[in-house]
């Protein structure tokens, strides 16, 4: 069983390097404080792992067609594409705002969309939801890995190993995002440039996945 957990852990690491996953993390983490960034990363990883676990359990008893599994890829691609289009709309409609203030001798930067500064708790929930949706797109890859472990019952320890592997990459990427948030997003011009760049990347990644 230990060997199986190691295989699942390394699959989680390789799986997390997918451009769609890193793009989704960037979409939700750009402009957030360090603590919020890592909460988002954790929520996405947990949502992703739970969905894959659910499908793995279903596949122990039922055979799903290739056509059905391909819908998962379409859903994941559509999510990334939609987020990219939304970010670009926010940039070009001038609906991204920045405000700075000093609290306890520390400079704080707040970035929000629309007219009102929304509470950030919804962002973590949204990241969890997107992680769940994109988990559907990772089912086929998980099937290949589980095929190596044929004969073993899929239990929650496997999903914990997968989530741990995913988090190694996601938290490392989160450090990069935190640096961008702290040192680059210091004025509204940089904010719009960064969000436009992330939006374009999301559109390209999501569009390419749909066409592939």
What can you see in these coordinates?
With 212 residues, this protein is mainly α. It has one domain. Helix content is 76%, strand content 8%. The chain is built from eight helices and two strands, in the order H-H-H-H-E-E-H-H-H-H. It has helices at 2-16, 19-29, 34-61, 66-92, 121-137, 139-148, 156-184, 188-211; strands at residues 96-103, 106-113. Strands 1-2 form a two-stranded antiparallel sheet. Strand 1 (96-103) and strand 2 form a beta hairpin. Helix 1 (2-16) packs parallel to helix 7 (156-184), helix 4 runs antiparallel to helix 5 (121-137) and helix 4 runs antiparallel to helix 8. It is globular.
Strand content: 5-15%
Helix content: over 70%
Element string (H = helix, E = strand): HHHHEEHHHH
| Spatial arrangement of strands, main beta sheet | 1-2
Biggest sheet descriptor: 2 strands, antiparallel
Distance from N terminus to C terminus (CA atoms, Å) equals 36 Å
Gross morphology: globular
Computed CA radius of gyration, to the nearest angstrom? 18 Å
Structural class call reads mainly alpha
Number of alpha- plus pi-helical segments: 8
Q: pLDDT under 50 segments (min length 5)?
A: none
**Overall mean pLDDT:** 79
* Number of DSSP strand runs: 2
Attribute tags:
212 residues; mainly alpha; 8% strand
How would you briefly describe this protein structure?
76% of the residues lie in helices and 8% in strands.
What order do the helices and strands come in, and which of them pair?
Blueprint: H1 2-16, H2 19-29, H3 34-61, H4 66-92, E1 96-103, E2 106-113, H5 121-137, H6 139-148, H7 156-184, H8 188-211
Antiparallel strand pairs: 1-2
Helix pairs in contact: 1-6, 1-7, 2-4, 2-5, 2-7, 2-8, 3-5, 3-7, 4-5, 4-8
């Amino acid at each position: 069983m230990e060997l199986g957990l190691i295989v699942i852990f390394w699959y989680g690491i390789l799986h997390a390097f997918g451009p769609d996953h890193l793009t989704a993390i960037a979409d939700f983490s750009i402009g957030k404080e360090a603590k919020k960034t890592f909460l988002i990363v954790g929520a996405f990883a947990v949502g992703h792992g739970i969905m894959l676990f659910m499908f793995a359990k279903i596949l122990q008893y039922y055979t799903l067609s290739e056509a059905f599994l391909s819908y998962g890829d379409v859903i994941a691609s559509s999510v990334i594409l939609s987020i990219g289009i939304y970010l670009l709309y926010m940039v070009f409609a001038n609906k991204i705002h920045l405000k700075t203030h000093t609290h306890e001798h520390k400079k704080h930067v707040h970035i929000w969309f629309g007219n009102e500064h929304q509470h950030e708790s919804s962002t973590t929930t949204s990241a969890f939801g997107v992680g769940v949706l994109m988990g559907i797109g990772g089912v086929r890859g998980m099937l290949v890995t589980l095929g190596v472990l044929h004969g073993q019952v899929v239990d929650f320890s496997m999903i914990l190993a997968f989530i741990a592997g995913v988090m190694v990459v996601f938290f490392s990427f989160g450090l990069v995002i935190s640096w961008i948030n702290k040192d680059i997003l210091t004025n509204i011009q940089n904010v719009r440039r960064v969000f436009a760049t992330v939006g374009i990347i999301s559109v390209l990644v999501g569009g390419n996945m749909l066409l592939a």
